[in-house]
Records
---
Amino acid sequence: MGFSSRCDQFRRALRHPVLVRNRIRRFVSGLKIDSMFGGGFSFLPTTVAVSPTLKCNLNCLTCGLKQNLQYPERMPEGTHFDREMTLPDMRLIARRLASFRPVILISGGEPLLVPDLSEFVRILVRDQHMYAGLLTNGHFLGEHAQALLNSGLCHIYLSVDGYGETHDSIRGAGAFQKLETSLVKFLSVCRSRRCDPPAITACITITPQNQLALLQTVEWLISLGLTRIHLKHMVSIPMELLSAHNSAVRDDFDRVHWTWGEGLRYEDINITALVEEIRRIKLRLKSVPGATCEITPDLDSRGYREYYLERKGRRADPCRMFWKTAFVYPDGNVMPSNICYFHPMGNIFSHSFEEIWNGDQYRFLRKRVIENGRLPVCDRCYCSHGLWS
Ligand code: SF4
Ligand code: SF4
């Protein structure tokens, strides 16, 4: 992590002391003391992602969610992902999570389609003193600007695929215009209120469509004053890998149900050009005071070959995802991941989070993860690095 990123973290910790507490908990989690207790026990997670809805106004080429939701047979038994959370649901979730105050990532679908989303953020941040971030495609930021700023929202993770037509080629015609208009409005409301706005991280997934337009995208973001950049290498779990995985594992519990980035082909990435593009972005951001650039995973020259040509990821074993992070879906089901072991562990509407987290299902899962070690699909894992970890 670079000096700017550390300064950025330090500034955020000063503004949100709850992050310091969380950082200490992450450090303790990293010591893996809970694994020594055996029996699948875990300390409570440091991050909980909550999806109040899986609906979205867009239909991105790269969207794993949309690709999977159209197949009812890919939905695990006992889930109702077409449901949308109501305000009482969100109140209940906030109360249940407040006992240990993890970092909350509000995700989707597009969360701003849910009425009362700002009220949910307000309860999390102002009433329950948690750190809440919002993952959004940005189309509704402008119209919700006042309510979001009133809510105390701490962080916005903005999905951007490119500038102009590049963005549209992935997100659909007119998407860039809508994003830009909404974003400009949001930023202007922030300025007019003279308030401390939420941190904004622009998250750019590298794809064949935008690989050579990344610097142009970053220049556009800089021109808007957005200098916190997170580049993510694309993830693709096509049907073939999913089938190979499923035939290598032992039973239904270990099976993977969801593909991811089905239309993305690693061979369409021009590695030499991409390495150069990223070098130029790093250089450019170094010249901007306070700018940060995170890359997930941050590959060295051998890493690029492994990632794009040999399709191998580098990941420490065993995977600690199920000791650190949980996902709450719109029907209240707590899921361990959105790739592997995609089974409901319990429902937060009917049980406390603590009961679920160290309940029979989760403890069985953790023992299974240790037993299984690395799974074939781990090489292409989206969850074990970056935002979710
Ligand atoms: S904005 Fe996100 S959730 Fe919506 S279609 Fe695009 S990738 Fe999927
Ligand atoms: S690395 Fe990813 S796919 Fe593998 S066990 Fe962890 S969360 Fe699952």
Note: The two ends are 15 Å apart (CA to CA).
---
Amino acid sequence: MNKRLILTLCMIGLGAALALTAVPGPARTTEKPKTALFVWGGWEGHEPKQCVDIFAPILEAEGFKVEISHSLDSYLDLDKLKKLDLIVHIFTMAEIKPEQERNLEEAVKSGVGLAGWHGGLADAHRSNVEYEFMVGGQWVAHPGGVIDYNVDITKPDDPIVKGLKRRFPMKSEQYYMQVDPLDEVLATTTFSGQYAPWIKGVVMPVVWKKHYGQGRVFYTSLGHVAADFNVPEAREIVKRGLLWAARVIQ
Ligand SMILES: [Zn+2]
């Protein structure tokens, strides 16, 4: 191999290396990394840990510094909470102590994002109305249990659902909820009435976003069990919802 060829090969190699390093990765090296706290627990039937184990790595791949907690005592340090970008709260049918609840609400009110799915967020603390005021809805029934139903995207231009199939099927619990008119609804489901004839034709929110004070709140009723997130649309909606609540996407 002559010297010129070696030099040329070296330059090609250097160029390729530079091109590789120039590819913008998800981690924003010049900015402070976003921070997210997952707090999971409550009813095990909702597989809270398995679900968190799906989305925590997704946020890490987006450059987030992620902390995972199995205790509501993580809410006792309000100053720490207020420095977070996002809290993911997954705690079906559990008691929350007044100080824990108050700090969670104060943090979100101050601008920290809040996100969650299914009963983990919207059937977490049934007797805590301020908490429900923050979330924007509360589960009340899933007629028929695990059934086949469709989800319809109703705001296709919203970044959280943009480009997804306008209608996709789920085999899961179809959540009937009491919802806040403030919710900006991005997807709905329509009840057939097969399991509760008087609700035939009712159109129910499945995905919404809203504010509580300065904080962004994202919710979807999808995600009864971790396998529900094998549906690509369900997984993508939660991923983007978390990013929206953390102000990564507008
Ligand atoms: Zn469920």
Note: Residues 46, 118-119, 173, 224 surround zinc ion (CB under 6 Å).
